[in-house]
Specification:
Elements: H1 2-16, H2 53-62, H3 81-103, E1 104-107, E2 111-117, E3 120-125, E4 128-131, E5 138-144, E6 149-153, E7 161-163, E8 169-180, H4 183-188, H5 193-209, H6 214-218, H7 222-240, E9 244-255, H8 261-308, H9 310-326, H10 345-348
C-alpha cells in the first residue's frame, strides 16, 4: 500500500507541472540552453555576415528567383520559371543527338546499307553519306559486299572420303570462295549464310565426284570438276535466293585413302610408263606416215612427167636406175673396134691372191 501511494503521488505531480523543453523555455528567455533551430535574437543572421556554402547551394537549387523563389521542386534539381528553359534545352539536345546518330549513315565503298521501315525492307543505300528517318522508325544494316569469304573442306585435319563413279574411294580436300551478291536476300532469305554455303558445297562436290572416274578426279579432270561444282552450287543458291555469289572452287588435294596409297602409286607409275610408250609409238607412226606421203608425192610427180613424155621419161628412169645399181659394183669399160682377145675379167677388179708357200719342185724329170 505504501508503494502504491508513492506512485500515485508522483503521477499527480507530473500531471500538474508544466512541460519543459530540453532547449529551455523557448522564445526569448535567456535561461537554459538555446534551441539551435530557432531564430537567433535580433531577427536573424548578424549584419555583415556572408552566406555560407549551404545557403548558396540551396539558393541555386531553388532557382534564380532567390531564396523566395517558387518552391515545390525536388531538392538538388532546378525548379521554377528558369528551370523550364533548362529542361527544354536538355531535352532538345538529347533529341538532336538521337536524330544525328540514327538518321545519318556513312556507307563505306565496300559496303551497302539495307534499310527497313518498321521492320519491313525499304531499300538499299549506296556508298556515301546517306540519310534516313531516325530509329526505331528506320534502321540500317551495313553489309560488306566486296569481302571474299573462304570455306575449307574439311575444316580440321583428317580425311574427306568420297565415292567416285567407278566405285573407288578418294580423299578430297578443296576450298570454296564466295561473296555477297544481293544484300537484301543475304540478310532476310537465309538464316545462317555460312552453313548454307558449306552444306551446298559439300552436296555439289559429292554429286559431281560420283559421276567421274578415279583417274579423272586425281588427274587432268580436276579443272572440269571445279567448274561443274561451281555451276551446280550457284544454281542451288539461286533457287534459295541466298544472295551469295560463288567466286571459285579449288581442289587442293585428291589422293586415294592412306591405306592403299602405296599400291596406287605403283599403278599410277605403270600407267604413266604405258602412256609414255604410247606417245613414242604415235611419234614413230607419224614419222613413217610422213615419209610415205613424201614418196607418194614424188611418185605422183614422176608419173605426171611420164604421162607428158613417156619415151624420154622411161629412158631417164632407166639411166637413173642403172646409175644407182652400178654405183655399188666394179665396172670394166670395153671400146670397139680392137677388142683384146683375152681379158681376165675376174682379176680386173682385184688382184689374184698370192700363194702363201712356194710351189713344190718336181723330182726326177728324166727318170
Amino acid at each position: 500500500m505504501t508503494i502504491r501511494s508513492a506512485w500515485l503521488q508522483r503521477l499527480s505531480t507530473l500531471m500538474t507541472e508544466k512541460p519543459k523543453s530540453p532547449w529551455g523555455g523557448g522564445g526569448g528567455s535567456d535561461d537554459g540552453p538555446r534551441n539551435p533551430w530557432a531564430v537567433p535574437p535580433g531577427g536573424g543572421r548578424p549584419r555583415g555576415a556572408k552566406p555560407t556554402a549551404l545557403d548558396e547551394f540551396i539558393r541555386r537549387a531553388r532557382g534564380s528567383g532567390g531564396g523566395g523563389g517558387g518552391g515545390g521542386g525536388f531538392s538538388g534539381f532546378p525548379s521554377g520559371r528558369g528551370s523550364t528553359t533548362i529542361w527544354l534545352i536538355g531535352v532538345g539536345l538529347i533529341v538532336l543527338l538521337w536524330i544525328v546518330f540514327t538518321s545519318i549513315h556513312p556507307i563505306a565503298p565496300q559496303q551497302r546499307g539495307v534499310v527497313t521501315f518498321f521492320g519491313r525492307y525499304a531499300g538499299t543505300l549506296d556508298p556515301g553519306i546517306q540519310f534516313t528517318l531516325p530509329a526505331p522508325i528506320a534502321t540500317v544494316t551495313k553489309v560488306d559486299v566486296q569481302a571474299i569469304r573462304t570455306e575449307d573442306f574439311p575444316e580440321a585435319a583428317g580425311e574427306n572420303l568420297m565415292l567416285t563413279g567407278d566405285q573407288n574411294i578418294i580423299d578430297l580436300a578443296y576450298s570454296v570462295r564466295w561473296d555477297i551478291g544481293d544484300p537484301q536476300d543475304y540478310i532476310y532469305q537465309i538464316k545462317d549464310p555460312k552453313q548454307t554455303v558449306r552444306a551446298t558445297a559439300e552436296s555439289a562436290m559429292r554429286a559431281i565426284v560420283a559421276t567421274v572416274t578415279l583417274d579423272e578426279a586425281i588427274g587432268e579432270g580436276r579443272s572440269r570438276i571445279e567448274a561443274r561444282v561451281q555451276n551446280l552450287m550457284q544454281s542451288i543458291l539461286d533457287e534459295y535466293n541466298a544472295g551469295v555469289r560463288v567466286q571459285g572452287i579449288a581442289i587442293k588435294q585428291a589422293d586415294p585413302p592412306t591405306k592403299v596409297i602405296d599400291d596406287f602409286k605403283r599403278v599410277s607409275a605403270a600407267q604413266q610408263e604405258a602412256q609414255s610408250n604410247l606417245n613414242e609409238a604415235r611419234t614413230y607412226a607419224q614419222q613413217v606416215t610422213a615419209r610415205a606421203q613424201a614418196e607418194a608425192a614424188q611418185f605422183d610427180l614422176a608419173y605426171e612427167q611420164y604421162r607428158l613424155a613417156p619415151e624420154v621419161t622411161r629412158r631417164r628412169m632407166y639411166y637413173e636406175t642403172m646409175e644407182a645399181v652400178l654405183a655399188k659394183n666394179n665396172k670394166t669399160i670395153v671400146e670397139t673396134p680392137g677388142v683384146v682377145p683375152y681379158l681376165p675379167l675376174p682379176a680386173t677388179g682385184a688382184k689374184a691372191p698370192q700363194p702363201t708357200t712356194p710351189p713344190v719342185a718336181m723330182q726326177g724329170g728324166d727318170q
